[in-house]
Amino acid sequence: MGKQFAFFYFMKKEPEKIKDAVPLHIEYWHKLKLSKYLGGPFADRTGGMITFEAESVDDANRIIINDPFVIQDLLESNWIKEWVVEI
């Protein structure tokens, strides 16, 4: 069983580039079929959050660096944190 991670990010103010990249970003994350994946934008569209399972923070980072938003340098700031979910 892997660890749960939260990827939290804010977008740069480049609406046209972001609009073009959104379908690629969505497709990328859906194609991964990651365990315990949840994701989506903030209501004000300034960024978003994705949670998913990975074996380690290194594995999580390898997944994130291939996100089209990252590749196209559209993120103003972002964080990846291991998330301990308490039920």
SSE blueprint:
Layout: E1 3-11, H1 15-32, E2 38-41, E3 47-54, H2 57-64, H3 68-71, E4 75-82
Antiparallel strand pairs: 1-3, 1-4, 2-3
Describe the structure.
Strands 2-3-1-4 form a four-stranded antiparallel beta sheet. Helix content is 34%, strand content 33%. The protein has 87 residues and is α+β, with helices and mostly antiparallel strands. It has a domain at 16-53 and 66-87. The two termini are 17 Å apart. It has three helices and four strands. It is globular, with a radius of gyration of 13 Å. The protein has helices at residues 15-32, 57-64, 68-71, and strands spanning 3-11, 38-41, 47-54, 75-82. 13% of the residues are buried. The model has no long low-confidence stretch (mean pLDDT 96). β2 and β3 form a beta hairpin.
Separate helix tally: 3
What strand line-up does the widest sheet have?
Answer: 2-3-1-4
Rg from alpha-carbon coordinates: 13 Å
Overall pLDDT, averaged? 96
Helix and strand sequence: EHEEHHE
Shape: globular
The description of the largest β-sheet is:
4 strands, antiparallel
Strand content: 25-35%
Kindly, what is the distance between the CA atoms of the first and last residues, rounded to a whole number of angstroms?
17 Å
**Can you tell me the residue ranges where pLDDT is under 50 for at least 5 consecutive residues?**
none
Quick take:
This protein is 34% helix and 33% strand.
Characteristics of this structure?
87 residues; alpha+beta; 4 strands; globular
